[in-house]
Protein 1
Amino acid sequence: MAAATRPARWHRNISAKVAAVPMIITAVVVFIGGTAWTVLYSFTNSKLLPREKFVGLAQYDRLWSSSKWLISIENLAIYGAFSLIFSLLIGFMLAALLDQKIRFEDTFRTILLYPFALSFIVTGLAWQWILNPDFGIQHVVRSLGWESFNFDPLYNPEIVIYGILIAGLWQGTGLIMCLMLAGLRGIDEDIWKAAKIDGIPMWKTYLFIVIPMMRGIFITAIVLIASGIIKVYDLVVAQTGGGPGISSEVPAKYVYDAMFLSQNLGQGFAASTMMLLTVVIIVVPWAYLEFGGKRK
Amino acid sequence: MTKTPHLLNGSMKYDAGPAEAGPDRALRHGDGTPSGSRMVEGPAGRKPRKALSRRNILIYGTLIVVCLYYLLPLYVMIVTSLKGMPEIRLGNIFSPPVEITFQPWVKAWAEACTGLNCDGLSRGFFNSVKILIPSVILSIAIASVNGYALANWRFKGSETFFTILIVGAFIPYQVMIYPIVIMLREIGLYGSLTGLVIVHTIFGMPILTLLFRNYFASVPQELFKAARVDGAGFWAIYFQIMVPMSLPIFVVAMILQVTGIWNDFLFGVIYTKPDLYPMTVQLNNIVNSTQGVKEYNVNMAATILTGLVPLTIYFISGKLFVRGIAAGAVKG
Amino acid sequence: MEPSISINNLSLSFGSLDVLKDLNLDVGQGEFLVLLGSSGCGKSTLLNCIAGLLDVTGGQIFIGGRNVTWEEPSQRGIGMVFQSYALYPQMTVAGNLSFGLKNAGLPKAEIQERVNRAAKVLQIEPLLNRKPAALSGGQRQRAAIGRALVRDADVFLFDEPLSNLDAKLRADLRVEIKQLHQKLSNTMIYVTHDQIEAMTLADRIAIMRGGQILQLASPNEIYNRPANKYVAEFIGSPTMNFFEGELEEAGGNYRFTSGGKTFSLDGYTFQNGPPAAGAAWFGIRPEHMVSGAEADTALVRLDGQVELVEPLGSDTLVRFTTGDQTLWVRMDGQANIRHGDAITVGFDPARANLFDKTSESRL
């Protein structure tokens, strides 16, 4: 019993489809298209402007023999590893402390989280000032009597990345703490009671019962931190400008410098493709674990 | 600490203390009825706890120390920005200003030189505002409609596009920067504020869409179905039902976007011309590229000024901010 | 005989809010005591105090003759089963049972022995290597009980363990708990808001309200002789019928007058000896009223008109009006009665319940 003629298949939900056009364009054109384009052109020898001349893996050869690139990779690895470990550790411990039904919890949380609201530029500049050897920490400690105290990470090529690490942790740990706190609050109160009845001391309860229950949160935190690490750029630009020399270079800065400062688009494309590869290597196994092959 | 006697020795039950030589049993009703005091010698009432117990000292002590570490940069910035240069050269960064001066702030705002001009940060501030407002409005408008369409009006392929969007959130920006430069150049918007607004909208889409989609999906379906039965269409339902119901999530989205866009540096420096630079870029120029004498107090004043907007929003919105972060962080 | 648990003048306040007020309670060895009440009455709070999970503000707690008022939960000789079972989700059942023992430093052999023993009693041996997520509701309950069992505790505490389950499962697990008590004979204290659980499981029930125990007695006693109107209303489904009236006394004989009708109270046993006359509540359970032919020979008769019929299959609940009162009566499931029919019910005053109008205690 046909009623009025049914609208054509594509006509259904037409408003929704129209409304979703920006999302579709973004997803397809920008994300997929843009990425594909960059990867493609990394095999050309584009300089100031994109050129269609294909040169195989030449850009990659050049990339991996560039000391600037190698240093930036090394820096990223160090920054990444320490960032991950310390963010998780400090974030979790702070969350555990805040979870103890203490007074002034809101105040503490507000203080621990405010750096997250700042731009990386602000963070970088603030810590640049604090770590200034002539006026900052080194100077203060020396003037207190320890004449030979040395603490100028930003001028020491060996440890400059750690100076950046301090600033980065200051900014980012608050977020991890909030995440962990949310996770801790989601633990059934009865579990704590049961552990108390069993006579399990607090630290063991955290280690053997609560943390394993928070597996999902930890994974989210790791993904979050990891994606932030890859993107680190503003912080370096503000705090050290990549220096001293090139000792605090990072991949994101390498890309920008190549594309817009040294007029070497090809290198920029190759470097960004390498960054993409790193992300893929980390994220794909995670996505597979998390979604168990149900989806993609 | 004694272990539970039970668990150590199967045969022994408990510490056999002296038998309770209590008052006449007949007087002690154990049947719930009030009967005066039945208490005997021994521990009673609240367990004695020192306010300054080891546990409390550990917890509060650690938290206070950590908070000092977190407050340190803010304190140093403020203090430095209120000192005159001679005082800075003499003293240490931790000491409060002997003589408070607001001159550095004035200079930072109106006179600092960025290499191109000496208008101070004010130019950057207004640029940032001009970037912020359209970007926030546009990105939230589009993302909320997207989220609504995905939650309630699934059509063929919608989930796929959404997945691509989310995957896109993980892709490092660097890989998409140059193609966007080309596209903007083609439309003639490269270097303009409008172009930057579009860029912010594009990159804000994944997380915001996810936020709105999850929120709208949690709205009871019955509401939506009832509206459709009443004959309302896509846009009618959106404006008359969904939006009024979701003010909190709009606020969260706004907080996220205002913070993210105001604090942005990378897109600002790539997609605008120098006289349109947002505040963050200008700040970096003022501090890091001035030749000659570094005016630390002006630099710090400038730094604080740049951080003022998102910080204010943070302190005002408090719990909502935390919820926004948690929501945005759920999927990275 | 020394009581298994003694509570002396227990009080608990949160700031200015008194949650438990001067409670006194003795629980016998091997007794199954149920703490019954609606939410907020303090039953869970009392249980948590006994367990040591909450700090009391006044009074003492004795378990097994020992003053445990200041002792940690793990030192009190108790085991506890929670509403959500609270099994450690990342460990197997065996892991759950042995974790506390391992922590106390027991030798492996003994831990193994205890775990096996508990598993045998509870019949969860095949489940020892499974994780809680792979267990059914009933299996989880047994695993949770097992965790309490391996502690060789004398006292088991249950905090509304069946509240989260659907009716069928609840009935099945209720039976299991009762069987367990018969097998183990440990002292058990059980908190619930469900009167059916209370009536079927308890040796004695403590009905609580506002932080105080209203009545502590066997289920039978509570059912037949509730100590006050609240208890009378709480226990029994369908609820007891009440009507107000005057208690009159004439030469040692008592009568009750309500709504113009008067009937004799001969046969009724007063709780505390003959009371003074005055305003009172009269209560009679729907199932203690008879109808039809039996009503003709009952001591007190009421005539009325049927308002509503609820056929349950096993019984029929009938609501009727008589005078200005509305009452319920329970009839046989096959009764042939309809809305609008005339009805005569009767009852024996000996089964009635009288309560003082102001104090609401039993007369």
Protein 2
Amino acid sequence: MKYKDYYATLGVARTATADEIKTAYRKLARKYHPDVSKEAGAEEKFKEVAEAYETLKDAEKRAAYDQLGSHAPGEQFRPPPGWEQSYGESSFSFDDVDLADLFAGIAGRGRPGARGAPNMPIPGQDFEAAVRISFDQAYKGTEIEFDMAVTEPDERGFLRRVPKKIRVRVPKGVTDGQKLRVPGKGGKGANGGRDGDLYLDIEVQAHPLYRAEGLDLYMDLPLTPWEAVLGASVDVPTPAGRVTLKVPAGAHAGQKLRLSGRGLSRPDGTSGHLYAVAQIAVPTVVDERQRALYTQLKDASTFDPRAHMVD
Amino acid sequence: MVKIESSAAIVLDESGTLTVTELVERSGLSEEELQVLIDCGALAPRDAVGASWRFSAHCVVTARTARRLRDDFALDDAHALAVVLRFVQRIEALEDELRRKG
């Protein structure tokens, strides 16, 4: 496995006190946290710093880390003989274990797999994943399947990085940015501790026609000038199929025409509406006859949309 | 081929009634920290049953965000955490508004 010098990452001496370590971490976190930093590579840097602090802030993890000795950063190394015994076999390969994983199991119970460790129940970690679904999948509900690589204890209690296939039923009516909880699909608990949960961050892909706001949907409805003035019955799409919409006479640009109950709906029966937002579209190419008719209209009308703009 | 069982997902929205204990368990915050967040208006229980608060499932999202901020910035002070959380909530609301306006 590759060595990472956590003390160097935090910029502290190997003899630093817990307070010095915390102060150093806070300064770096303020500098590189992606919520506050616009620097390129900030997120990566923050992860390194957070990983270092995660190990060094806990007295037992720090002691276990110190026992690995001091190496050059990035150097491939094997942990000292005592570690192999804890893992139970001399042919155990540390290649597929990340340095951070070694200490993840240490939380007040000694080294992973150590005999005589107290049998305190330890709840499993929660996992998080971002999932992208289409508008259609969100509208109807869907089943999604994806892969995760998780670190969890095997039969003997030793930590391994294992690939996992997860399949989740997403109920209909979820919106972009919503979070879902999948109970029990997180990390395994130990010593009878409950399994962790999986949290999903949902991204719903934009639809070319519909924009969602909560359960309501909005779509632009282009109308010809005569449809807006005279009113019309127009054929429009909705997620559930095409319908005829009655446009009232005198419809103005921006007017919202409501198609009741045709928004997103949830399993509990609540649903939103679909709003068709009127836009007045003007033909750019007109023949001589149309031009003549428009001129007649112009002469016959006293309508002034800029009356309010006179001084 | 091994069939993978599919699991139900719970949408963390305004429905649901969680107890303080459940919220503590799901978020990783302490009860004291939760209390300070409620006092500062950063977290709103939906109602109280007898002497105990009940929370919507969405509160889990807020509480977990608070825990992430607490750990990311090593914040010891629950009041500072509540202030940071209020700012983050304001930023998220503004980003949503920007996204809606296109």
